[in-house]
Amino acid sequence: MTQVAVVTGASRGIGLSISKVLLELGYTVYGICRNPETCNFYEENFHLIKGDLKDPKTIPIFLEQIPNRDKIRILVNNAGLSYFAPIEELSSDKISEMTQVLLNAPMILSSSLTRILKQNEGRIFFIGSVSGFQISPWGNVYGSLKAGLHQFARLLYDELRKYSVKVHLVIPDITKTDFYHDLNIEPDSDPRSYLIPDQIANVVKQILLDQSGLVVPEIVVRPEVFKLKRKKFQK
């Protein structure tokens, strides 16, 4: 039987790495992203669908573009959006955008696909963040929304386990992606101080390969040492 996976934010970073792992495991992957034309990875069973999670009304539209929706066995809620600033500098539009992408969209997607996942005894992965449980300067809205996502994943795990739907919350620490592009800090040059997307994807892979009957509902993944550095901006 064809196995289908849906991954949000699949055109780059952690989402792309997880998509490659799913392809390796034999899944047909439908990736949701805003700019599919920027992705330079091509594979026969990898299909990118243009969709903006900031607009909840478009979610049913791009889900309808998946031709074999009844075969979906995995949903990966990975897409992210972050604005870091003092609270008085965060506009209502930016707060609304983050709320929609980081919390509302994963809830809507999970709700939309739960009946199918129950039929297929599937899985839902949530990619969280350590910002959801530790203080992050100027990251109060982002961290609060990630905390909300973490709690939703935990509650959904208990709700769906009776239907043999496995829910997994993967919480990465500092990961070297373009997440830091617009911030004034970035991962240190020491490779022991950050994770890379393939390492997060490998955690997902190991969870999927484990057929022992146990479930990993939540896992925190950290680099060996903690280091960040301030960016040097040219005047």
Automatic annotation (TrEMBL):
It comes from Leptospira biflexa serovar Patoc (strain Patoc 1 / ATCC 23582 / Paris). Pfam families: adh_short (PF00106). Its EC number is 1.1.1.100. Belongs to the short-chain dehydrogenases/reductases (SDR) family. Keywords: Oxidoreductase. One of its GO terms (molecular function) is 3-oxoacyl-[acyl-carrier-protein] reductase (NADPH) activity. This is Putative short-chain dehydrogenase, SDR family. CDD domains: SDR_c.
